[in-house]
């Protein structure tokens, strides 16, 4: 199975400051069609996960443009240009290249 | 708007079975597969399997093969996930999630808490 490892379990951030979360995969997530099958989700407190980024760098509908995804192959990054209070929660990366689909362990973003 | 509404919380004894439902609305049911994912306390999200709601074909995680059964009722726009031979480690929140063009999951249900305890 593909194992995803996120760079930190906890990430304290001051509002207005940038934040970055890394996700590393044990197998390449680049498919022959040129797309990376890596998604990012945010699970706000008490809610279900919500899709932020799909195929490595595409923002889902309604997601603010302060969120961006980058990377290819086995190394990916989620960046938030200016963190807002509403961004708190746990961020997960997920690979959708092959079953079983797998998730990172999660990074909890907290406001300082 | 797309909605996935799951059945309510369950409490089961070890060895029992549970069946959780996920009713879809706001889109054409047969066009998107439905996945099941669980979140146990302190554990990462874990994928159990998916069902093609149009053709009916199914894929299970090998970890749960033999214990999980996913079915659908197209007339009711509903997908079911049954988990048998329950043990305490199955205590978790179970989510259904809509497949998004094979890219991943775009919409999630509200979650169903399953507690397995004697």
Brief summary of the model shown:
The complex is a heterodimer of chains A (112) and B (118). Chain A is mainly beta and 112 residues long. Chain A contains no helices and eleven strands.
- Percent in strands of chain A: over 45%
Q: Which oligomerization state do the chains in this entry correspond to?
A: heterodimer
Radius of gyration of chain A: 13 Å
Shape of chain A, please?
globular
**Total of helices of chain B:** 0
Computed over alpha carbons, the radius of gyration of chain B is: 13 Å
Q: Look at the helices and sheets of chain A and give the structural class.
A: mainly beta
How far from one another are the termini of chain B? Answer: 40 Å
Point out poorly predicted stretches of chain B.
Answer: none
How many strands in all of chain A? Answer: 11
The major sheet of chain A is characterized as: 7 strands, mixed
Distance between the ends of chain A? 36 Å
Would you report the number of β strands of chain B?
A: 11
Mean pLDDT of chain A: 97
Mean pLDDT of chain B: 96
Portion in beta strands of chain B: over 45%
Describe this protein's structure.
- The complex is a heterodimer of chains A (112) and B (118).
- With 112 residues, chain A is mainly beta.
- Chain A has no helices and eleven strands.
- In chain A, the strands form two sheets. In chain A, strands 2, 4, 5, 6, 9, 10 and 11 form a seven-stranded mixed sheet that branches. In chain A, strands 1-3-8-7 form a four-stranded antiparallel sheet, with no helix packed on it.
- In chain A, a hairpin with a 3-residue loop joins strand 5 (50-54) and strand 6.
- Chain A is globular.
- The mean pLDDT of chain B is 96.
- Chain B is mainly beta and 118 residues long.
- Chain B has strands spanning 3-6, 10-12, 18-25, 34-39, 46-51, 58-60, 68-73, 78-83, 92-99, 105-108, 112-116.
- Chain B is built from no helices and eleven strands.
- Helix content of chain B is 0%, strand content 50%.
- In chain B, the strands form two sheets. In chain B, strands 2, 4, 5, 6, 9, 10 and 11 form a seven-stranded mixed sheet that branches.
- Chain A binds chain B through residues 35, 37, 39, 48-51, 54-55, 60, 92, 94, 96, 99-106, and chain B through 35, 44-47, 50, 59, 61-63, 95, 97, 100, 102-106, 108-111.
